[in-house]
Amino acid sequence: MYKNKDDILIHAVFDMGPLLYKLVFQSSSHQEDLGVTRTQLQALILLAKKEPLNMTQLSKEMGVSRQQLTRVVDGLVEKRLAQRVESPVNRRMIFLQMTDKGRSLLEGTIQDCAEQLKKELSLLTEEEKDILIHSADILRGLSVRKAD
Known about the structure:
Elements: H1 5-24, H2 29-33, H3 38-50, E1 53-54, H4 55-62, H5 66-78, E2 82-86, E3 94-98, H6 100-121, H7 126-147
Antiparallel strand pairs: 1-3, 2-3
Helix pairs in contact: 4-5
């Protein structure tokens, strides 16, 4: 079925994507309390790492169209989890940044997800954990090379 190790890895990555997404973005009580979607949560995570971002930057980071992102951001602004801020240099340039309420929601959600992940990871042996750590480092390295 598979011709070589690259094919095996490609299929494994495609299989893992949805599983990891589900594992990381499982509903948390914090997320549910405010009715935040997974896409809105993804936007908050990116803002936490790279804020402030303009709409073009955020849409590229998320891999969604600007139209889709506008709906996502409108929801975050309406819930007071993020805010639009004019650039002091160019008033036509609008940046997005998280509010304190957004940071609090994200911290609580990450805590909930981390607790769930710890339960799942406790089922692994130390050797399996070492392998996953090494694999994650390799994947991060690929991601960094792609960004350059």
